[in-house]
Amino acid sequence: MGSSAFILIEREKYTPEKLLGDAIVAAFHADAGLYFDNDKKYKNQQFFSTTLNISYNPLGVENNQQFIFYIDGIDNYEINYEHDEDISGLDSSLSLYQVGCIEDVYGVEELIFRFIYEYLKLNPTDYFWIPDYDWVYSWEDMQKFRSLPYDPNWCYKNPKSI
């Protein structure tokens, strides 16, 4: 199993509807395919999550270039970001939610790069975070990566070392 990833958003800004809308727009600008069937999950009668499938190829075609993107409800206890360590590039005074989970980044690094670049372009105060590492990617970091030739290992590198 590979590394999961999340978008970190300030708590007072987060709504599932905005994340859903921005994910759709980001997929559009990343020239990615998008499948959404509005299959909502509930826990204790509260909205828990729904998913998008973001892909290079149409669904049903042999396709290893895709990932599932979770849109989390505000009442989903799993969105609380309570990281005890200092993460390089992240202001420790921020009150954040970890939302927009991508289960596994391995093998879809380029698709994720294109999607996250477009997402952070829309939301430059949000962050992209892979918990297996000690850093986050900001809009500025993604712009730096984009100015260089594409590196398939971009998401395994400390963005501050670029």
Note down, in words, how this protein is organized:
- 23% of the residues lie in helices and 25% in strands.
- It has 3 helices and 8 strands.
- The protein has helices spanning 16-29, 109-122, 139-147; strands at residues 5-10, 33-35, 41-43, 46-55, 66-72, 96-102, 127-129, 136-137.
- Strand 3 (41-43) and strand 4 (46-55) form a beta hairpin.
- The two termini are 28 Å apart.
- Cα-atom Rg, whole angstroms? 15 Å
Cα(first) to Cα(last) distance is 28 Å
Q: State the secondary-structure class.
A: alpha+beta
Order of helices and strands: EHEEEEEHEEH
Poorly predicted runs: none
Helix content: 10-25%
Tally of strands: 8
Features of this protein?
globular; 162 residues; 23% helix; four-stranded antiparallel β-sheet; alpha+beta
SSE map:
Layout: E1 5-10, H1 16-29, E2 33-35, E3 41-43, E4 46-55, E5 66-72, E6 96-102, H2 109-122, E7 127-129, E8 136-137, H3 139-147
Antiparallel strand pairs: 1-6, 1-7, 2-4, 3-4, 4-5, 7-8
Short overview:
With 162 residues, the protein is α+β, with helices and mostly antiparallel strands. It is 23% helix and 25% strand. It contains three helices and eight strands.
